[in-house]
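Archive transcription. Copying these from loose printouts into the bound notebook so they stop getting lost. Printout 1 of 2:
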Amino acid sequence: MPIIKSARKRVRVAHRASVRNSKTKRSLKSALKLLSAKPSTKAHASAQSKIDTAVKKGVISRNKAARLKSRAAAKAKAANLKFSGARKTTAAKKTTTKSSTRPKKS
């Protein structure tokens, strides 16, 4: 056990991070196993979501995530799953010009 106060804190922080990372890894593995065992659109979406979450939290790299997503999509395709396509964004684009925000001179 470390003696220095900052070293003790690093041990506590590292332990919390390892617990958090192991939970993320475990949920990722279980989602991928579920997709392998019973391929469905719901299982595929769950696996994609867990992969994205793991990347966001820094548990796996982007390249590994791309490889896992590719394999998951191949398994889904082999199971003849139907997908509705890419997600559609509903955010409207704002286009303003400077001339429209200025008051008119009379």
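Printout 2 of 2:
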Amino acid sequence: MSISIGIRHEDKYAMERRSPLSPVHVRRLINNQHLDVFVQRSDKRVWSNEEYHNAGAVLTDNLDKTNVIFGVKEIPIKHFEHSKTYVFFSHVVKGQSYNMPMLKALMDKGCTLIDYERIVDDMNRRIIFFGRFAGLAGMINTLWTLGLRLKEYNIDTPFLKIRQAYTYSSLEEARAAVADVGLEIAENGLPSELQPFVVGITGYGNVSQGVQEILGLLPVKEIMVNRLTELRSRKSAPTNLIYKVIFKQQDLVKHTNPNLPFDLHDYYQHPHNYLNDFEQYIPHLSTLVNGMYWDDKFPKLITRKYLQENMRDGKLEKLHVIGDITCDPEGSIDATLKGSTIEQPLYVYNPENHTIKSGFSSEGLQIMAVDILPSELPRESSEAFGNVLFNFVKPIAAADYSRSYDEIDLPRPIKRAMIVHNGELTPSYKYLEKYL
């Protein structure tokens, strides 16, 4: 009996062009792993239908001939089929209300769900991810947004020469464009009224690494958080230098008891014992790139109250743009009211009435919060993702899901990522019942 998998087309976003597996991966699965691969036709996927066909896949309009289906983003409820196994980013592990109907539908149809986000090693580190590419595209877009927003203030900068990430033919072309801007800043500097120009980055994982990779193409000097006040108090700063500061958890919060220091283990176990301590740094930042993990048990980074109290004449004194790569609507940053699309990537937040307006011309705080940033670099991000996923495809496809959860023969990282098995929440995810 042959073993097969399906690769679905992506339909949540108009410009979602990624695929979990490339034609190269498909060819290897067919020739070396002896799998049958069905690929749902797509006119927008970064690789053409013909490329998958030439790799040996069977092109199809539906995936009814296979029981194991791989995608990238959430799948509309109407497409779930009884008792099938689905592998995709489900965005349910925090109990996200907007995806609970999807989770309920999966369970009602007796399906099995494996979530890429929860494929982790024994140290709980993610194994398969798009994070670096979210950081790469997010930083490119943030620099592009800076150019547009500063122009609204009648400040011309070299950032105007940077475009939105998806408009470049490749990551290398985008990198070259940013590097050219970096050379211009090094030679001619930025306008003096922007000095000192400071980019703050939250997080130090895969997203942050991608952010810093792009930022490193500019003339950058890293400073410690405790140097921010000193930097701003200088009478002059070099105009041809951008300062980078990376915020870790201990920089973001403080204990409710002023006599107790920050303790990382205590913070994760008892986050209610901690308060926001980040807003003191906002007046020192020109740009903030938010790339950290957050959920609602932790204090926020930026509150509406802070923005209401500190905005003058429709803007903050220094902070021009937030690139919110984390993109948690009304999450760590109150100004991020929604994830934006590649087609309409920017909006301005008004704290007075807690509303947003598309574009970059309104009064308020400029936000870039594209929800599918890796899809702005679809080829490179999909190739990197598929290179890791490839090793797990056959075990996922060959597993006997009719067996009990304890008896299923799967690699441990995959078993950890099984949120639903034949319509039932698995032991590690029983907590989601309260959200259903």
